[in-house]
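Sorry, explain these C-alpha cells?

***
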Amino acid sequence: MAEYNEDAYKLARKAYIEHSCPFERALLSRCVGCTRSRKLNLAEREAIACGDAAVREHCLTFYRSLHDNAQFALKINPDAPWPFGKEIRAQCGGVRGLAAALDSVSDETADIAAVVLLARERLGDSDAFPYSEIMRAVVHYEPRKRR
C-alpha cells in the first residue's frame, strides 16, 4: 500500500478550494449548518468550501474574534495550536451561542451565515457581539461522543 502524501493533499486542496470555510470543522461535525457552504470530496476526504466570498469575510472576522475570546474560557495558551475538541467547542458553541443571544434557532439547524449576517445587522461589527453570552455556550457545549 502506498504511503499517503499529506503535502500533495494540501496542494490539491489549495488549488481546488478557492474560499475555505472558517467553520469547516463545525459543518463536518454537523453541529450547525450553512446554506452558503459547498461540500466537496477530495482525496477520499470531505472538505467544505464557501460559496459566497463576501459573507465568508464576515464569518472569518467572527471566527477570529471567537478564538480571541475563547482562549481564556477554554484555558488555551495563545501560542499553542488548538486541540480538535476545543476547536469544535469554540466553533459549535460559538455559533449556537450567538444564535441564542439573537433569539434565533440555536441547535444543529442553525445557519452560520444567516446568524452572522443577522448579528451584524442587529449589533454592528463583530466586536459588538455579546461574547459573554457566547462564551457561556462555548464552555457548556459538549461534542458528541465517539461511537
